[in-house]
Amino acid sequence: MPPFFDRNDYIQWKIKMSTFIQSLDYDLWDMIVFGQQLPKEYISKPRIKYNEKEKEMLKLNAKAKHIIFCALSSNEFDRISSCETAKEIWNKLEDFHEEKNVEGVTSCLMALEEDSSGDESENEVNFTFKELQNAYENLFKEYENICLKNKSLKKNAISMANEIDNLKKENSKYVKEIESLKDKNSFYMNEIDILNVSSKLSNDSLKENEKLKIEIDALKKSFSTFSNSSANVRALNIIKYYYWALKLFSHFLGWARNL
Q: Which PANTHER family does the entry mention (predicted)?
């Protein structure tokens, strides 16, 4: 059960309550001290439309409010019942009760100042030692509470620094991947250039081959014309030699094209 607050000694209750909540769940304490941005119009918004993050924030807020409600008397509950968030409740209690403590301390200090500036023969005191002691204790407890808040802020700062380091590492990883993709792209571009050159050479070889075929056909016709004439035997042999040379050259071009 949370420590009960009956409007007496708020500073002491505040320290006990903060320790109690932190022992349950530090996320609850963060919700109370720092607050979280709840979904807009979260009261009227249909529940089914909330995403998981919004549901988690609403759940933490409701749990923190429930713990504080259970620790308050009826009069204190009436004072903060209209608050929607746990942070609003906590701040409202602080504003009301710590303002009363400050007023009490101020009154004591003013009374002390008036007493010291008055006639030394008049030793009338308007406050008791117990009141001064309580005022001092309240100030000291408030100082401890501020130290506690600073400690929580330092913890959050360290956590944020770690997250920034992780993001830097992720960014470095993505930069390396981008560089790797650039290298692959350059390699593929070179391959495409080589294929384009090969395609051009292949087209040139086809044209040469067609040209040779035409010349071979012409030689065949010439061979047919001179084959029946004994006077042109020598010319025929020369034509045959030229024919076979062209044929070999044609095969060579075909072989080169298939490389």
A: DUF4219 DOMAIN-CONTAINING PROTEIN-RELATED, TRANSMEMBRANE PROTEIN
